[in-house]
Amino acid sequence: MLNRFPLWKYLMVAIVVLMGLVYSLPNLYPADYALQISPSAATGSIGSQVEEESLELLQEQNIAVRRTERDNGTLLIRLENPEDQLVARTVVQQALGDDFVVALNQAETTPRWLQAIGARPMALGLDLSGGVHFLMEVDMDEYLGDRMADYASTLRRELRAENIRFATIEQTDDRVITASFRTTEDRSEAENLIRRQFPEFSRSSTSDGQLQQLRLVISEDRIEQLQSNALQQNLTTLSNRVNELGVAEPLVQRQGNNRIVVELPGIQDTAAAKRVIGRAAELEFRLEARSDASPLDREEYPFREGSGRSGTAELSTEVIATGENVTGANFEYDENNRPQVSVNLNSAGGSRMMQATRQNVGRNMGVLFIEYNTITTYRTVDGERVAEYENVVDRSIISLATIQSAFGPSFRITGLNSAAEASELALLLRAGALAAPMYFVEERTIGPSLGADNIRMGVTSVIVGFMLVIAFMILWYRTFGLFANIALSVNLLLIMAIMSTLGATLTLPGIAGIVLTVGMAVDANVLIFSRIREELDNGVTPQAAIKAGFDRAFVTILDANITTLIVAVILFAVGTGAVRGFAVTLSVGILTSMFTAILGTRSLVNLFYGGRDLKRVPIWGVWAWRK
Amino acid sequence: MAQMKLIPFMSKRLTTAAFSGLLIIASLGSLAFQGLNLGLDFTGGTLVEIGYEEPADLSVVRSQLRDLGFPEARVQYFGSERDVVIRLQQDDNPELGNELVQELRGDLDQQLTLRRSEFVGPQVGEELRDRGGLGMIIALLAVMVYIAMRFQFKFGVGAVGALMHDVIVVVGIFSIFQLDFDLTVLAALLATIGYSLNDSIVVSDRIRENFRNIRRDDVSYIIDLSLTQMLGRTLVTSGTTALVLLSLLIFGGEMIRMFALALLIGIVVGTYSSIYVTSNLLVQMNLTKQDLARPEKKENDDEPEEIPDWLKDED
């Protein structure tokens, strides 16, 4: 008998190997360390003078530049040496000032033809690239408490507006508001109104003899919705803020019901990162002060830079609504194709807005942006540059427009200068404030030197482990060992290719997973080869022994790998960060090793030995014991 | 059958059972009395790794920390004398790491670099602990169900017995020597489960096959035969895996050291347990031919089942 594969099987193996080769190729092109310069306001643009200025500065510092690119309003300066990156950024940022954001970037160097077919290098985890990892938890109790208080005050206002008399309306428990009335008539009128306008509450009536009470319990659905909204808004806010930090590939991701993960590769100054991420900003809607208002009732504020107006305006001290009331803000065009921002307020903000605007048509309404910020200034003391931090509250007007007619929870801000201004205003309105307070529950910083060390050590241990296994296999199994080694190399290639195309992140435990896979992947071959030897010992002919070895070992290999895969999947499901990285490479490694160790090795064996009359099978190495 | 010398594994089964028992008692005892040296991931707290330009003097660092009001700080070298790790129980101040570096740099005339700083809040630590334990239990159950389905209930018990033995012993060794037990060690423990299982399955597979093909219904003989047949394979696979783990232990750096160590111990213990614990339990439960009787329709076959088409030869 002969062991032969049909042509299509050889072709399939060859194609998979080729694909593995192509898609793991981008990892050979290390990213350039680069500076990415973009204008800080959406209205700005980058001209050639910025490019020239930056290059001159870098030249003064003896920082070698590899290449510069300018497109889509951003400038990318690729540097020759990674260690120059931080210095370069500081120098350029100081010179260009606040009008530009200078970010650290790892610019791809993958050739275009590879990019065109979707090949890209593996993403490196923080433990390999260096950077900061934050885990923040949203304080939902406090947030829900605030919402219930909002509800209570809205209810009071609505009942008053409808002339329904009540004694008290108060929050009496976590999720309960109790309203009390003097008469049952008042109570049933109130109940009607609440049924119509606040269907999210379930109602029950009680009486304590003197007062008729209405107990309102907010529905679980509504609570879930509120929580999910709060988390979503915090997520948006954080993403927007992280973008301001100027990090190449930030990650802002929801984790569970109340947590947000922020990962900033390349950032070293955690303090600065936290100042931006944890920044408190607030929005206020106020009327423009009447010219005859008393000085006590008016305050003068400058227009915000980039708002398209200069100078100052006076606003009334009375606040109609705040950023917390904004539930949505979108940039759009009106029928004359002029940019505007549509704003949605929650019910409390909406009814206050309705009241205020009804009485003030024709007057101006201003949007005041309040920012609690930290300013970094650089000074030179004794020849050394030191950074100084100062906390400031910055109040400025982002928009001042005429009230055309009374409006409630949804309205539009018009009279904006440009589309860029409008979209930035919408963004600020949306992302201006965190919906719910947050605090840091986990923080990890990996310095750049440690990241580089980890890569170096990880790669070394993979190479050494790989070499040891290869040497061992050849000594033990001779030519078949060589086949197994080729399969093992292809396995490594496939792991890299799959990780790269999936966009999976490589971490240090991930490298450990690869190392472990190298050790375990040969198990399949060991099982097959031992079986072949056994069959040969039993006096079976060479070709039949090869066939039996592959066939009989298959089920064992399958069982062993499926159980390991079960464990890897569980690891992934219950694990976080580091453990997941390990689980991913382990699972990928198990799957690819099934392919390479069984089909790959078999193709080689069939190709070289399967088609001819075989007298001896070269499966005993110099070390292997033989009876 | 080939004339292979039969190694009488099962004649030592009482001795090894006693040995395993001793290991388990020692492990459980140590766990009960001194517990685990849980890492930051599970306890919450702050960890700062600082790189010094010159070899650092730990006693100086300790006294500096005492002066700063952290007498309970644990200070250790990490890999080299220029690398110092400081662990604090504080878990209410995420800024602590940065502050420490500033303070320690203060009165030294060398440059310090913050290599790593980790802060884990108490609630996260607790959660990770719970999820880790949960993962372990789910993994054990899932595996038991799979083996019971693929083989037979007694094999499931045998394999899971071996797994529990391995987990207890590895955790026990970490407890006895008070090694740092962090998240990566937990991952290694789960990987050990996967590995040890791999071994148990391969052995069980052969035991099943031999039970079907050989007329003697003597559990000890069949198990000895199967173990002897698989010994080469078991040693080679454990050997190659141990080789790469040694490479990881030596070259992989400090952050991955405990992981490599845990897995290495796991593999040694796992290899031992797949030979002695699984088989021992099978003998104990008195595995018989009847246990492995196939459903009627698939009468004779020593042919392996379920070979997919794509693997079949077309000769």
From TrEMBL, chain A:
Residues 312-436 form the SecDF P1 head subdomain domain. InterPro entries: Acrflvin-R, SecD, SecD-TM, SecD/SecF_arch_bac, SecD/SecF_CS, SecD_1st, SecD_SecF_C, SecD_SecF_C_bact. Residues 231-288 form the Protein translocase subunit SecDF P1 domain. Its main location: membrane. Residues 2-104 form the SecD export protein N-terminal TM domain. GO terms for molecular function: protein-transporting ATPase activity. HAMAP family: SecD_B. Forms a complex with SecF. Part of the essential Sec protein translocation apparatus which comprises SecA, SecYEG and auxiliary proteins SecDF-YajC and YidC. This is Protein translocase subunit SecD. The lineage of its organism: Bacteria, Pseudomonadati, Pseudomonadota, Gammaproteobacteria, Oceanospirillales. The gene is secD.
From TrEMBL, chain B:
It is a multi-pass membrane protein. GO terms for molecular function: protein-transporting ATPase activity. Residues 107-286 form the Protein export membrane protein SecD/SecF C-terminal domain. It is found in: Cell membrane. Keywords: Cell membrane, Membrane, Protein transport, Translocation, Transmembrane, Transmembrane helix, Transport. One of its GO terms (biological process) is protein transport by the Sec complex. The keyword Transmembrane applies. Pfam families: Sec_GG, SecD_SecF_C. The keyword Isomerase does not apply. GO terms for cellular component: plasma membrane. Residues 301-315 have a biased composition (Acidic residues). InterPro entries: SecD/SecF_arch_bac, SecD/SecF_bac, SecD/SecF_CS, SecD_SecF_C, SecD_SecF_C_bact, SecF_bac. Residues 292-315 are annotated as: Disordered. The chain crosses the membrane at residues 132-149, 156-177, 183-203, 235-253, 259-283. Belongs to the SecD/SecF family. SecF subfamily. Forms a complex with SecD. Part of the essential Sec protein translocation apparatus which comprises SecA, SecYEG and auxiliary proteins SecDF-YajC and YidC. NCBIfam families: 2A0604s01, transloc_SecF. Part of the Sec protein translocase complex. Interacts with the SecYEG preprotein conducting channel. SecDF uses the proton motive force (PMF) to complete protein translocation after the ATP-dependent function of SecA. This is Protein-export membrane protein SecF. It comes from Natronospirillum operosum.
